[in-house]
Amino acid sequence: MKAELISIGTELLLGQVVDTNGAYLASRLGSLGIEVCYKSTVGDIEIEIEHALRQAFSRSEFIITIGGLGPTEDDLTKKVMARALGKSLVLDEEILHKIKSNFTSQGLSMPAANIKQAFIPQDTRVLKNSVGTAPGLIMREGKTIIVALPGPPWELRRIFEDQVVPFIEKEYPPKNLMVTKVLKTCGLKESEVDEKIKDIMTGQTPLEAIEKPLSVDKALTGQTNPSIGLLAHPTGIDIRITVRGSDKSKLKQMIAGVESEIGHRLGQYIFGVDDQTLEQVVGFLLYMNKLTISVAESCTGGLVSHKLTNIPGSSNYYKGSVVAYSDQIKKRSLGVDKKNLDEFGAVSEQVAKQMARGVRKACKADLGLAITGIAGPTGGTHERPVGLVYIALAAGRKVKVKEHKFNGPREVIKEKAATAALDMLRRYLLK
Amino acid sequence: MKAELISIGTELLLGQVVDTNGAYLASRLGSLGIEVCYKSTVGDIEIEIEHALRQAFSRSEFIITIGGLGPTEDDLTKKVMARALGKSLVLDEEILHKIKSNFTSQGLSMPAANIKQAFIPQDTRVLKNSVGTAPGLIMREGKTIIVALPGPPWELRRIFEDQVVPFIEKEYPPKNLMVTKVLKTCGLKESEVDEKIKDIMTGQTPLEAIEKPLSVDKALTGQTNPSIGLLAHPTGIDIRITVRGSDKSKLKQMIAGVESEIGHRLGQYIFGVDDQTLEQVVGFLLYMNKLTISVAESCTGGLVSHKLTNIPGSSNYYKGSVVAYSDQIKKRSLGVDKKNLDEFGAVSEQVAKQMARGVRKACKADLGLAITGIAGPTGGTHERPVGLVYIALAAGRKVKVKEHKFNGPREVIKEKAATAALDMLRRYLLK
């Protein structure tokens, strides 16, 4: 079955907002056995929305539209949908009541604009929105099913998970399944990962791949089974394993076989799977080891702390941080010696070590992690270039320190340094 | 002229990565007078890439492909492009030399996989990549121009800005211009903004908009001139003003007229324009007022500090932060009284005020900003629910504090609290 996503919103074509909903839905539909084959984006223009809908009707059996259900003038989805399906818009009293009480419960009266959200095309199943005012919709046109979801990501996700997933599971019991697993690595470059596993990926050398194209059926489907793809981020490489077939347990076995072979070659460079983050893994290891952590940040400016505290329950193991941009605070709150600052500079092994020890003591934590470096774009010298970062980890009476040289713009250097710090902590906790 | 973007990568259709390049290019092309009319996404499958290319040749005069130029097995763009254009792939010695020296300069030898990146379709202009190994390409097919750019965002941006923009400016001197300006607000809901400016948006009431569709030419183009659209984020509403025409100075006047009218109605709710962030504006105001800032964070866990330090040059006004998750650090590093913690709790006006005063003192800064609250998902009670946040600002001997109630998941509450804190600082600095 061919599924299609249509994102609606001029802001998407003008590039003012990044479409995270498309990625979310594509991933979730894939796991339900529905493969997204087309993804298109149109502006808030009636004729273009209608054109995209009619094109989708002609080629896809399952369509999800995203956005354009809000209360404002440029929210056109329902109006155009009704016209394309030859239906009229009718007032839904229940939705109207729900929207009104959303406002009255907050002591506000409903703005006139919101009444628009209570009009829906005839013969439509309403998907209640418990976290916002715009309800979603499910409509049928012959064999085709059309789902309309609101654009705000957490409203879309809630409605999709609570109401659309059960609908899909009932309507399309999976036949041709696709199972995907992602192995997440950090510390290696894309070509290093490729070098280590390329024979698993295709069995061809790169020159062979250029000179001898793949066999016809491989070229037609573009994939082997299992197929393996790499995805490079500034902070690490994801390895995506995909298998297709009808027998779920066999697919899981296939995945496990490839995973074990790749795991054997890459070892601790793999930190997690699927949508796990480094901070989740580190949090889990801290929790299991019953250890607490504190952080002294200079060039990362709070990013390591922000990542650690994104994890629910992090207050069980995370005690606190000192973000020490000025030398004054390095001395005062972290106990860094003036002598070390003068002799070696704030970006040095010596200061990194003292920061790690100092924050551990100030927070009475088991571990102290410290990052000091030059995030740029200015502040670099010939001896201490932009991207030079020292990361130290204090545990008990011991302190380890490591030098890194990162490249990229300021925010990328912050990301890379934060990742390397969390990874140093992870590797310590694995021992 | 119709322009089209084709994003290539199975990871995009599986939802494993969010396409930020599309948004970037759409926005930049718009400012160069080139309107992106189609945006499509295909997987790393030869036949699908070829299909998308052939469809684009049939309807668009300017095409940009994104991704698929890397060294690995699933990077297929050049191979398919050559076939679709009836060209063969040839080895470019200069590119090969460049890639080799990239590696040797780092003391590494070139992995065999990277040689693939030195093969390009015949009669192609090479776009040098100074920040990575995959070069971009410009090709012509009759009247159509095809640009291929690598997927990593900072490689794509650098090549686009340095080499594609000058090419576009020479090849397509702008005729029909589109100028966009975004006014960024925080502190108002979408329907509140809509209520205040909806007559500027269309001159229709919402009920009229449902009952009386727009006039034919409005419905055809879907827009008035100037046209105004709203875009809701969890932390604020963007107002997008777009004008079209041929006379640049007239367009600027039109924008200025609308901007002034909206500015009059929304006042200080507007914090910036276009891609300005709250932290940029706050940083600028701190710098202009020659004031330094320090931050005490509890529920935001370092996010305010991370945002402030994302701005190059922030070391001129940002001194440091204490992220105080445990009460111990609140007492020890910020001087919060045990009595206040026991009597009022860590999430209280009293503790917020003491945190703001304490961090100002610890960092010897002019201002102290403090955030304490419950980010959830657990930890809430009936009296102190998840989302309750106190924000305090200490300046001289004065401390102000404000209570907020935010909703949403943990990361959204962190974002909203960080935004409210920066906004409180901004409004103080504007006085």
Question: How would you describe what is shown here?
Answer:
Two copies of one chain form a homodimer. Chain A is of the alpha/beta class. Helix content of chain A is 42%, strand content 25%. Chain A has three domains: 2-171, MoaB/Mog-like domain (Molybdenum Cofactor Biosythetic Enzyme, Chain A, 3-Layer(aba) Sandwich); 177-273, Alpha-Beta Plaits, CATH 3.30.70.2860; 278-430, CinA-like (Maf protein, Alpha-Beta Complex), CATH 3.90.950. In chain A, the strands form four sheets. Chain A has a six-stranded mixed β-sheet, with helices on both faces. In chain A, a hairpin with a 2-residue loop joins strand 7 (136-141) and strand 8. In chain A, helix 3 packs across helix 4 (77-85) and helix 7 packs across helix 10 (248-266). The first copy, chain A, is globular. The relative contact order of chain A is 0.07. At the A-B interface, helix 1, helix 2, strand 2, helix 3 and helix 7 of A face helix 1, helix 2, strand 2, helix 3 and helix 7 of B.
Keywords:
globular, 16 helices, 431 residues, homodimer, Molybdenum Cofactor Biosythetic Enzyme, Chain A, Alpha-Beta Plaits, Maf protein, 42% helix
Oligomer: homodimer
DSSP helix fraction of chain A: 40-55%
| Number of domain modules of chain A | 3
Overall mean pLDDT score of chain A? Answer: 88
What percentage of amino acids of chain A are in beta strands? 15-25%
Which chains have the largest interface? A-B, 124 and 124 residues
Indicate the CATH architecture of the largest domain in chain A: 3-Layer(aba) Sandwich
- Count of helices of chain A? 16
